[in-house]
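wait is this the right file?? whatever heres the structure
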C-alpha cells in the first residue's frame, strides 16, 4: 500500500508498485514457515535493548582505576566485541550501512576508553597499579589475551573487511550523527570508512604488539601465548584455547593488511597448534608435593571421535591437578567457549581463497560441524524442539565453572553454531541449519526477554545470514530516517510499516516517530521478488530519489554480493534450464564486461558467458566455499562479444562457489550457486 501523500520526489521515478497484498499473509492465523521468521527485525530489537540497556558501552560508572579497568574489560571483551562482529555479518547479509556506522561509533567508544587514554598520570599510582598487573600506560583493555583478543579480533575484522574485502566501501562518507561519538571524538576526524579503517589498523597493531613483542606474552610456536607477560612465562602458563583463538584471528586480519609477515606467522602458529600433539602431565609439576614421576600422556588438542572434534577447556596447555577452578582433569570445553575457539577457523576459512596456505581444511570444518550435530545436539524435548548438551564432548558435565553446571542459558548460544551450516552438504543428517532453525522457532522467535549475552546476538546474525541465503524470505522495515543512500532487498515480500516497530529506530539518527522518511538528496532503492508494500507513515521527501522495483529473479536472487580489487561482482546462476541472468560486473570508459551464468543439471556443467568488447585472454578459477580450487583454466582467448565457457562440476556437490576471473581487463570475483 502506497501512502500517496508521501510520494513527492522531484526528479524521482517509481519503477514498480504492487497493489495491497491479500490480508493475513503475515498474520498470526497463517502457519509460518522458516521464510517468514522475522529474524532480522528481531536482531535489531534485541541488539538495541542489549547494547544500550545492559552494556551502555560508552558510559562507565566505576570510579577507582581497578574497578574501572574491570568494568571496561567486561563491557568490551565479554560484551560488546562479539556484537560488533555481528554488525559486519549483518552488513554482509543485508547491505544496510547502518550496521557499519554503528560499528564505527562503538569502536570509537572502545578506543576512547583504552587504558592508556584514561588519563591516569600520577607515577606513584601507576606504579602501585602495575604491581597488581594493571599497566595503564599500555594500549590495552584487559589483563590478558582474553578480553584484548576478542576486542582486537572484532576491530581487525572491520579493518580487513574495508581495506581488503570491500575496498569499494572506502569512500563511503561517515554521517556525523549528533547522537553518536563520531562527530565529537577527539581521536578523529574521519571522513570516510576508509579513513577510519586506516586509522584503526594502526591502533589494533599497537595492542597486538604488546602481546607478540618482547617481553610480551609469546612463548613459542608450540605453546603460543602465555597468560602472563615477561621473560618468565613458560608452557605451564599457556593461555587457554578459547583465548588463543580470538587473538589469532586478530593477528590474521592485521597480518593480511600490514606489509610485515610478523602477525601472519604468529597466527599460523596458533592454527597449527589446534591440531598439534601436546603432553598432559599426570600430576602437577608446579605443586612438588603431588609429583610422583608419572610419565606425561600425549594427545591432540582437537581429539577426533566418531566424525567430530572434541577438545578440553585447557586446549594445548598442560593440564594441572589444581587450577583456579578446582580439580578438573580432562574437562571438555563448554559450548559457550567453543564459539570463541571457532573464531580463528572462521576468520581464515572465509578468506582462504586469497592466501597461499590452508590453515584449516575441509575435513577440519566438517568435524567442527559434526561437533554440533553429533555431540552438542541432544535430541528433541517433550515439546518437539531441539535440546543441547553444554559440552563439546556430548555430555552435561561442566565442572570448572560451578555456576554453569547443567544447561542454564548455554542452550541459547547454540544459534552461534549456525555458521557451520555451510558444511551440511558434506555431512550426515541432522543438519546444523535444521537444528538451529527449529530451536529458534520454538524457544527464541516469540521470546520477549531478548538476548542474555553477546554470543547470542553474535549467533542471531548468523541465523539471519542462513535464512536469507536459504529461504525465500520476507523483510519488514520499521521507522527510520533515511539520511544517506540506502538499498533494501527481500527475496519475496518487502514491507515498510513504521507503526509496527519496537519504538525507537534501529538506525541512527534515532527516531521515535512512527514514520519512514527518505530525506532530500538521498537515493533509496527497494527491491523485492513478489511485492513491495508501503504502509501509512512512509514518506519520500521532496528532492529525494526513490526507486521500487520487482526483481524478475524473485526467490532465486542473490542478496549478498562479494567484491575484490575494488570491483563489485554480482554473478548469478539460475537454478534450472532456460533462464540466464545478466548483471554488469565492470564498467569503464573503454569496455563493458558482463558475465552470464547458466546451469545445465543434465550435464552437471556450469556455463559462464563472458561478454567483452575487445580481444584478450583471461584466466578463471572456481573455488568451493572452503576456498579450495575445484576447476581452473589459464590463457583463455576472448573475442569481442559473447565467449562461452563450460565448467564441469560432475564430481562436486551443489552449493555456493566462487568464480574468479582475471585478465583482459577483468578483475572480478563473485558467488555462484549450483542448485539441483
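ok assuming it is, sequence goes like this
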Amino acid at each position: 500500500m502506497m501512502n500517496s501523500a508521501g510520494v513527492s520526489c522531484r526528479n524521482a521515478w517509481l519503477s514498480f508498485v504492487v497493489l495491497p497484498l491479500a490480508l493475513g499473509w503475515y498474520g498470526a492465523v497463517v502457519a509460518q514457515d522458516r521464510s517468514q521468521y522475522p529474524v532480522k527485525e528481531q536482531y535489531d530489537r534485541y541488539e538495541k535493548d542489549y547494547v544500550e540497556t545492559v552494556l551502555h558501552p560508552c558510559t562507565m560508572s566505576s570510579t577507582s582505576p581497578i574497578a574501572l579497568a574491570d568494568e571496561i574489560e567486561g563491557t568490551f571483551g565479554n560484551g560488546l566485541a562479539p556484537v560488533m562482529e555481528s554488525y559486519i555479518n549483518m552488513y554482509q547479509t543485508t547491505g544496510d550501512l547502518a550496521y557499519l556506522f554503528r560499528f564505527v561509533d562503538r569502536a570509537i567508544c572502545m578506543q576512547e576508553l583504552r587504558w592508556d587514554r584514561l588519563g591516569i598520570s600520577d607515577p606513584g599510582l601507576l606504579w602501585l597499579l602495575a604491581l597488581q598487573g594493571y599497566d595503564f600506560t599500555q594500549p590495552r583493555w584487559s589483563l590478558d589475551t582474553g578480553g584484548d583478543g576478542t576486542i582486537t579480533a572484532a576491530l581487525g575484522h572491520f579493518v580487513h573487511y574495508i581495506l581488503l574485502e570491500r575496498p569499494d566501501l572506502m569512500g563511503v562518507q561517515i554521517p556525523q550523527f549528533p547522537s553518536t561519538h563520531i562527530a565529537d571524538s577527539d581521536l578523529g576526524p574521519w571522513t570516510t570508512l576508509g579513513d577510519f579503517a586506516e586509522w584503526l589498523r594502526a591502533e589494533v597493531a599497537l595492542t597486538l604488539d604488546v602481546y607478540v613483542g618482547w617481553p610480551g606474552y609469546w612463548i613459542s610456536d608450540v605453546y603460543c601465548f602465555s597468560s602472563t607477560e615477561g621473560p618468565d612465562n613458560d608452557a605451564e602458563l599457556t593461555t587457554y584455547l578459547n583465548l588463543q583463538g580470538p587473538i589469532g584471528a586478530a593477528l590474521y586480519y592485521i597480518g593480511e593488511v600490514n606489509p610485515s609477515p610478523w602477525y601472519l606467522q604468529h597466527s599460523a602458529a596458533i592454527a597449527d597448534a589446534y591440531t598439534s600433539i601436546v603432553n598432559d602431565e599426570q600430576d602437577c609439576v608446579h605443586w612438588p608435593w603431588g609429583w610422583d614421576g608419572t610419565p606425561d600422556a600425549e594427545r591432540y588438542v582437537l581429539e577426533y571421535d566418531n566424525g567430530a572434534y572434541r577438545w578440553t577447556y585447557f586446549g594445548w596447555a598442560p593440564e594441572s591437578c589444581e587450577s583456579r577452578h578446582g580439580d578438573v582433569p580432562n574437562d571438555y570445553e563448554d559450548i559457550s567457549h567453543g564459539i570463541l575457539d571457532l573464531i580463528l577457523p572462521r576468520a581464515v576459512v572465509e578468506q582462504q581463497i586469497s592466501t597461499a596456505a590452508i590453515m584449516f581444511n575441509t575435513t577440519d570444518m566438517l568435524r567442527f560441524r559434526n561437533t554440533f550435530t553429533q555431540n552438542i545436539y541432544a535430541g528433541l524435548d517433550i515439546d518437539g524442539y531441539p535440546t543441547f548438551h553444554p559440552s563439546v564432548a556430548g555430555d552435561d558435565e561442566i565442572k570448572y565453572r560451578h555456576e554453569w553446571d547443567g544447561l542454564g542459558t548455554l542452550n541459547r548460544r547454540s544459534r552461534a553454531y549456525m555458521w557451520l551450516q555451510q558444511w551440511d552438504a558434506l555431512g550426515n543428517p541432522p543438519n546444523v541449519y535444521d537444528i538451529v532453525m527449529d530451536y529458534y522457532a520454538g524457544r527464541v522467535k516469540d521470546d520477549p526477554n531478548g538476548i542474555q549475552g553477546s554470543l547470542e546476538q553474535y549467533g542471531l546474525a548468523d541465523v539471519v545470514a542462513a535464512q536469507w541465503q536459504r529461504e525465500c524470505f520476507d523483510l519488514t522495515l520499521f521507522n527510520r530516517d533515511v539520511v544517506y543512500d540506502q538499498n533494501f532487498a527481500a527475496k519475496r515480500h518487502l514491507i515498510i510499516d513504521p507503526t509496527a516497530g519496537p519504538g525507537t529506530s534501529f538506525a541512527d539518527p534515532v527516531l521515535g516517530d512512527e514514520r519512514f522518511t527518505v530525506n532530500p538528496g538521498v537515493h533509496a532503492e527497494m527491491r523485492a521478488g513478489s511485492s513491495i508494500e508501503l504502509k501509512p507513515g512512509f514518506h519520500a521527501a521532496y528532492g529525494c530519489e526513490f526507486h521500487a522495483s520487482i526483481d524478475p529473479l524473485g526467490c532465486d536472487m542473490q542478496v549478498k554480493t562479494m567484491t575484490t580489487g575494488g570491483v563489485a561482482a554480482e554473478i548469478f546462476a539460475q537454478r534450472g534450464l532456460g533462464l540466464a541472468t545478466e548483471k554488469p560486473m565492470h564498467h569503464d570508459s573503454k569496455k563493458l564486461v558482463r558475465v552470464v551464468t547458466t546451469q545445465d543439471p543434465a550435464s552437471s556443467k556450469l556455463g559462464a558467458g563472458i561478454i567483452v568488447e575487445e580481444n584478450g585472454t583471461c584466466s578463471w578459477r572456481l573455488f568451493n566455499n572452503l576456498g579450495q580450487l575445484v576447476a581452473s583454466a589459464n590463457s583463455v582467448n576472448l573475442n569481442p562479444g559473447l565467449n562461452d565457457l563450460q565448467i564441469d562440476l560432475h564430481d562436486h556437490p551443489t552449493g555456493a562457489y566462487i568464480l574468479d576471473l582475471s585478465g583482459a581487463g577483468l578483475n572480478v570475483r563473485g558467488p555462484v550457486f549450483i542448485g539441483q
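The CA atoms of residues 116 and 138 lie 5 Å apart. so i think its the right one actually
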